[in-house]
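In the laboratory, one determines a bound structure by crystallizing the protein with its ligand and collecting diffraction data. In a computational setting the workflow is compressed into a single prediction: the sequence and the ligand go in, and a structural description comes out. We illustrate the idea with iron/sulfur cluster.
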Amino acid sequence: MRFLQAQYRLLRHYHGKTMTISHKHYLQSLGILPWQMKVSASPVIDNKTIPSALQDWNALQAAVAQCTACGLHQSRTQTVFGVGNRKANLIIIGEAPGFHEDKQGEPFVGRAGQLLTAMIKTINLERADIYIANILKCRPPNNRDPQPEEVKLCTPFLDQQIALIKPQVLLAVGRIAAHYLLQTKSSLESLRNKIHRYGENHIPLIITYHPAYLLRNPIDKKKAFMDLQFTRKILHNATSS
Ligand code: SF4
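The predicted complex, in structure-token form:
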């Protein structure tokens, strides 16, 4: 199936949604102070067109499962579409499936997934409350970085998932997701602690570390939890207005 080789245009119609969230102050108990909001310039995301047949979940999921647009289809066990609440106010976006995700067909399983689940709980949410997806739907060999052409070919799927969910906030975990969503090469550190904006509807976008990175660099866990507190605040503001 070669539909991704066409030029796509996303149709996004984001509507305000309301959700009541119990806002317990987990992180304040850790002595972490509230963050100062900084709003970055809104990036311009090129519009793309997705055939109307793919503008529902079943068609989109089937298209991903059958996709052979890039070479990663040759080594995958299965595609990893995404999981969670399709009416979520928050989408967490990672990089690509790893070994365990490729085997199980679900994003963020294994040790990194367990850490992500713990991170989600610090903002008083469960995995089932949010939606979780990756930039790529197939595992790169040996977990190498996604190549630009793979990102270009695969991200219309993610863009359409975002368009269908109409979230209030996006949280990108890791450099690869941040660079795609912001169309930048800036360091992850420089992108943290800011409200970025994604797409035509200027969805608030927060950047933090990937759980796999945090497993290798636990010293940065406190900064990640501060990012989550920041995300909780932005989510609260978005869903209260
Ligand atoms: S990574 Fe994406 S574009 Fe490449 S084969 Fe898998 S689903 Fe298709």
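The longest strand covers residues 203-208. Keep in mind that any predicted model is a hypothesis to be tested, not a measurement.
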